[in-house]
Amino acid sequence: MIAIFAIICVLGVAAAMTMKTSYEANSSVLVRLGQEYVYEPRAGDAARGAVPDSDQVIQSETEILGAAALKQRVIDRLGLARIYPKMAEKYAAGTPDEKKLIMGQAIRAMDQATKIETAPDTPIIRLSFKNDDPQVAALVLNTLLEEYLIYRRAVLIDPTSPVLEQQRQAFEARLAQADQAYEDFLNSNRIGDFVAEKTSLSQLQAQIEQQKYQTDAQLRDRQGRLSTLEAQLAGISQEVGLYRDVSSAANDKLATLKVQREDLLSRYRNDARPVQELDAQIAQLEAGIAAGRTHTEGARRIGVNPVYQTLQTEKIQLTAEVSALKQTQGALAEQIVQLTERRLKLAELEPQFQELSLDRDVLQANVRDYTVKEEQTRAAQEIAAKTNDNIRIVSRATPPSKGKSLKKPVVVLAFLFAAFTALCAGLLRMFLRPGLPTAQSAARTLDLPVLATAPLKIH
């Protein structure tokens, strides 16, 4: 037992003395929700702006930190000789296949030396890296963090800008075809602006119909006035007396006779015969005038009746207005027919126009949306390529001043294993020995009393 214990202890202590001291560098990273985790759909707005919870973000960043590609970038940047000198010597002398194998071993060794720790509901990721050299441990961990900030951009940034550009160009090509079909449709049907023309035709027809109604009303008014005027003209004389002269010959004759009588009185007496004869003439003439026998009509003038002339002028005017209104009525009716035919033609073409317009509107909206998404994606990539605002290094790694070694635990384990092994060997030796070692064990084993003992003789 002593021999077994001593051998195992010596071997364990020798093995512990060969173990090297490792130095562990530590750092921590603060992870917050960033723009790269906000969901942006390729098309439409379904679930736009959806974000994962904090634990999912931490898990994603942890997977990126533990990626083999990230460790490969660290080795490429620092060099294998800086991190694992012995592997670098084999790598330099190895074949291409051996180099790939050694590089895989280096990445695996680096993965085993790297420890990533997280806690629930905590936006902190703690990292540590072990190496025999404290300076190398800190350098590798800091380089890992720096490469992580670069590598995560390539992983998280959506590389869909070329796809969006291609889709936008496809929509633009389809939009050009739709525009050409739209223009051909308008040119073939001699339409400048379908909607404007349809609206203007509706307004124009409403105006012309209103003018036609007004013309119809005016025509009926003029025709009524004309018929009334014609009836009035039938009862009015075309000529009328302008004036007439009254004859005054009898009065003049009477005045002349009276003048002669006065002249005779200057030469004769009142009873003279010439005077009496003249008085008789005067008396006779006065009696005739009094009786009206001497009254005769004088000169009379007849002219056009001004009332008739006014009515005739008004009739001529009304006749002209009726003729003009009838022509206007016919022209308006013809225009209404033309407008109605044009509107029916547009109504027939409207389904085709709506289809072409809908295609153009949808394609224009798609081009606009994909252009906006393309610019937003490009801006997000440019911003993300220059900054990591949601990732902050809380503490960078510094060379550890105290290393960790397994010498003491190995020595203790070796001592315990040696003692356990020696004990087991002693018990095994005892159980495998023939006979019973003591009288007491024989009595217990055989359940018989021991009456005597004899010493063992070895020949």
Describe the protein.
A hairpin with a 5-residue loop joins strand 2 (114-118) and strand 3. The model has no long low-confidence stretch (mean pLDDT 79). The chain has 14 helices and 6 strands. The chain is of the alpha+beta class and 459 residues long. The chain has a 4-stranded antiparallel sheet. The chain has a two-stranded antiparallel sheet with strand order 4-5. The protein has helices at residues 2-18, 54-65, 68-78, 80-83, 85-93, 96-113, 134-156, 161-188, 194-234, 249-265, 273-291, 306-386, 407-432, 439-446; strands at residues 23-31, 114-118, 124-131, 239-246, 297-304, 391-395. It folds into 3 domains: 1-18 and 419-452, no CATH class; 20-156; 159-238 and 320-386. The longest helix has 81 residues, at 306-386. The radius of gyration is 68 Å and the shape is rod-shaped.
